[in-house]
Design a protein that fits this description.
Elements (H helix, E strand, L loop, with lengths): L7 H21 L6 H4 L1 E7 L6 H9 L5 E6 L4 E6 L4 H12 L19 E8 L3 H28 L2 H29 L5 H27 L8 H33 L5 H41 L1
Antiparallel strand pairs: 1-3, 1-4, 2-3
Helix pairs in contact: 1-6, 5-6, 5-7, 6-7, 6-9, 7-8, 7-9, 8-9
Length: about 300
């Protein structure tokens, strides 16, 4: 039987380093919030030969519109993110975007009025939705964490199981959020509605995997046996293959979705992939070591009082 918990200090060190890096990233760069949180307009066009992103940025920066960012995709489209605009200004933006086409590269073109970029998407979100979404996201995490804590503690007849599961869940959630701070800084990843969905999905996946291990510990008599370390090692050995097989089936699908999916779901798939990996790691290497450490600490306290 493998002594998984022999290296629990290394597991804690890995998690500690990830959390420290995450805290630094969040304070240093923050999160790249999409219009879902900040409010604004997204317009996506199918580009044509001769379209210049740099020229489009200069034209919009010199216009009445407040441009947040311009992003090109592998599908040959360009996405403009601006402050909220109405239908009338929507046409003006389209005209400005059309002026970013170098006419010499367009066969038989004589002026910019003959160039029309094909609009693929137009979305406007009011600024009031942003703060409301943030509040609802925080409330959803707190409510779900509280209910999971109480339910796990009740089912396992021990508060230690519930608290350990919640700490592992919060560990995954924080690192996922922090990872998008890094991805936002280096790769322009954004926090949007889909990210919130991925975050809440990660919460459930993390707890689900943890409960599988905890349930095996309980079946082996974890609540009644003094040597919780031996029981936990046996439970981890018996459930490890099952957990990895389950996780890899999800990971393979998400990798395929990340590589071949469209740009609109690219970062959603990335968030789910990161969350799945974190959930697979935290169940055996964060939740169980926390449970064992807590049990060990309680045992030492009881011995002190007996003396």
């Amino acid at each position: 039987m493998i002594d998984w918990l022999k290296y629990k200090k290394i597991y804690f060190l890995v998690s500690f380093i990830a959390i420290v890096v995450g805290v630094y990233s969040l304070f240093r760069w923050g999160l790249n919030l999409s219009v879902d949180f900040t409010g604004g307009t997204i317009i996506e066009y199918q580009t044509v030969e001769g379209f210049s992103v740099e020229k489009a940025e200069k034209l919009l920066d010199g216009s009445e519109f407040e441009l947040n960012s311009v992003q090109t995709t592998d599908d040959g489209t360009v996405i403009f993110r601006l402050q909220p605009i109405d239908e009338e200004n929507r046409d003006k933006v389209a005209s400005i975007a059309a002026e970013a086409v170098t006419l010499d590269d367009i066969e038989n073109a004589t002026n910019s009025s003959k160039i029309a970029l094909n609009e693929l998407r137009y979305e406007t979100v009011g600024p009031t939705i942003g703060p409301e979404l943030v509040r609802k996201t925080v409330y959803a995490i707190l409510v779900s964490a509280g209910i999971i804590l109480l339910w796990v503690a009740y089912q396992f007849k021990d508060l230690r199981y519930g608290v350990s599961a919640i700490f592992a869940m919060l560990h995954d959630s924080f690192i996922l959020i922090a990872s998008f701070s890094l991805l936002g800084h280096f790769f322009d990843a954004e926090i949007d509605f889909l990210f919130v969905t991925a975050l809440l999905t990660t919460l459930s996946f993390s707890v689900h995997d943890t409960i599988v291990v905890f349930d095996r510990i309980r079946e082996l008599g974890g609540n009644d046996i003094d040597d919780i370390v031996a029981v936990s090692n046996k439970a981890l050995t018996e459930t490890m293959v099952r957990s990895l097989n389950n996780s890899f089936t999800i990971i393979f699908m998400l990798v395929a979705l990340l590589l071949m999916g469209g740009v609109t779901i690219k970062w959603f798939a990335a968030a789910l992939l990161i969350g799945t990996v974190l959930g697979t790691y935290s169940s055996p290497f964060v939740a169980v070591p926390l449970l064992v450490t807590w049990d060990s600490a309680i045992g030492k306290i009881k011995k002190l009082f007996k003396k």
